[in-house]
Design goal:
37% helix; alpha+beta; 12 helices; six-stranded antiparallel β-sheet; five-stranded antiparallel β-sheet
Length: 535
């Protein structure tokens, strides 16, 4: 995103107009590299985020509530100590650096002074630094006290600007003209390489707008004029752009961009956490199933052990002592069966040893059968959870799934006191040719949907795939083929069947049953028909 000095200069002008004269009423630090200032401006309270994360750095407003941690971090406590109720005198860009300075008037019963909060928006070097009279009071990220450090950021040290780049300062027309003299080839690349404080995209935009004449004058005019056309594209926001979603101010564009990005990132992180928990449990159960099958395979010849024991018992007096083995006639299938013997045991003891091994393997096989069945049910249930999580489209879809995973002991319950749960989002609803169609978002909603439906309503589910449950409210009417196909397409869309033709079964709700003690969302059904639909 182009958080360069060009964009920050325009952003600082808007921030100055919006915040000048405002007072900092509250300070929270919801993340390790993020601080939020609540600023009362006589008209309203604005929430300003100062983010110094390497991949998400920026200064922008937010309209969403910010959760404060139960224990405030040290830097947050420092800001509260020095900046609580401070008045914002001005917001400005420092030179043409990617640094925004907040000048603050701090008044208390014992002190009356001016302090500066520097927001350095420089990628992985981003930082927040509070100073008074040029001396650092504290910083979010500090350096060591090693004398070899080029720029010391410690409490009590003098605040200095980062080392200048070997590029021309665009505010210096003489230096700018010298740097852009005799430019050939890629104009955008040359501007980026020779002029400080510009992102590659900004340099390309300057190059595209150049139509001839004095290049240095054009670059200076483009950078320092104040006209705006804020836009938000698929990946970035821009202060001066012709394509994308248009906004009245750069602040509104940034708020929309960062809020959308944070919302998407939060959704993906939560979904990834749920998927990871399910995938981990699935791996464990698949490993258990493989071990169970292996043990069962080892027990499949237990009947042969019984037969060997019986044959040895029937021919005890024909078997010599200390024999290593014997071949006896198997009257069960008419063949000769070779039997290995332990020379340290008598023939009768060898027979009893075979019977003992037979009983042990039989008990093992009897124990493994229900264990294997239970493990297969668990694996099937986990696949339904994975399908539901994969079909989630928004953050509101995830809390019920998280609750279900917690109940299934796939997630640890929250240790801290539970916050108020958000209102559960309802079923997905559709209308087609006068018919109402509902689709569940997770296993719990699928069950509720079945229970809330009339006996003659139509129920749909993909065949051999995990999917949401879909119900067509019939109200006693016959369902046209178009409505049925539309509902089947919804069912296939929210399944793990992928692309292509997917078979979908459908029947009346009265033929759908939930077996006792079965997992959430598991149903059996009869009297069904099947149709093919394409995703």
């Amino acid at each position: 995103m182009p958080q360069d000095a060009f964009t920050l200069r325009l952003s600082a002008k808007e921030l100055n107009a919006a915040l000048r004269g405002g007072k900092i009423s509250k300070i929270v630090q919801p993340g390790r590299e993020e601080t939020v200032l609540y600023i009362y401006t006589q008209k309203t309270t604005l929430k300003l985020i100062l983010n110094v994360n390497a991949s998400d750095c920026g200064i922008y407003f937010t309209e969403h509530e910010v959760e404060a941690p139960l224990v405030a971090p040290n830097f947050c406590m420092l800001l509260r100590k020095h900046l609580q109720n401070a008045e914002i005198l001005s917001v400005s860009l420092v030179g043409f650096e990617r640094i925004v300075k907040f000048e603050l008037a701090c008044r208390s019963d014992f002190n009356d002074c001016k302090r500066e909060l520097y927001a350095e928006i420089m990628g992985k070097y981003s930082n927040l630094i509070l100073t008074e009279n040029g001396v650092i009071l504290g910083a979010l990220k500090t350096t060591s006290a090693d004398l070899t450090v080029k720029r010391m950021i410690l409490t009590g040290a003098k605040y200095t600007l980062p080392a200048a780049q070997e590029k021309a300062d665009p505010s210096d027309k003489t230096a700018l003209a010298q740097a852009l003299r005799a430019v050939t080839g890629d104009l955008g690349g040359a501007i980026f390489a020779r002029v400080a404080g510009l992102a590659p995209h900004t340099a390309e935009q300057i190059a595209k707008s150049y139509t001839g004449g004095d290049l240095a004058e054009h670059v200076y005019g483009y950078i320092f004029r104040d006209d705006l056309s804020p836009r938000v594209g698929e990946r970035d926001f821009y202060a001066r752009e012709s394509t994308g979603i248009a906004f009245d101010t750069l602040s509104h564009a940034q708020t929309y961009f960062y809020d959308s990005r944070r919302k998407k990132k939060g959704f993906e992180n939560k979904r990834k956490r749920l998927l990871s928990a399910c995938a981990s449990a699935l791996k464990k159960h698949e490993k258990r199933l493989a071990q169970t099958i292996e043990k069962r395979e080892q027990c499949k010849d237990c009947e042969l052990l019984r037969i060997k024991g019986e044959l040895l018992t029937a021919h005890l007096y024909e078997i010599g002592r200390n024999a290593e083995g014997v071949e006896l006639y198997n009257y069960y299938d008419g063949s000769n069966l070779k039997i290995t013997l332990d020379r340290a045991l008598s023939p009768a003891q060898n027979a009893q040893a075979y019977f003992k091994r037979y009983r042990k393997q039989k008990r093992t096989a009897e124990f493994l059968a229900p264990q294997e069945e239970e493990t297969r049910r668990e694996i099937e249930y986990l696949h339904t959870l994975l399908a539901a999580i994969g079909a989630a489209e928004e953050e509101a879809d995830l809390p019920p799934l998280e609750e279900e995973l917690t109940a299934a002991k796939l997630l640890e319950p929250p240790k801290e006191k539970k916050r108020k749960q958000p209102q559960e989002i309802g079923w997905r609803g559709y209308e087609k040719d006068g018919f109402t169609i509902y689709a569940g978002r997770n296993n719990l909603q699928n069950e509720k949907l079945v229970r809330a439906s009339a006996p003659d309503d139509l129920w749909l589910h993909t065949q051999k795939y995990h999917s949401c449950h879909v119900v067509i409210r019939t109200e006693g009417r016959n369902v046209p083929d178009g409505v049925l196909l539309f509902a089947a397409q919804i069912c296939a869309r929210y399944s793990d069947g992928g692309a292509g033709k997917i078979p979908v079964d459908y029947c009346k709700i009265k033929y759908v049953k939930k077996p006792p003690k079965s997992k959430p969302g598991f149903m059996i059904y009869t009297d069904y028909k099947t149709l093919l639909t394409e995703v």
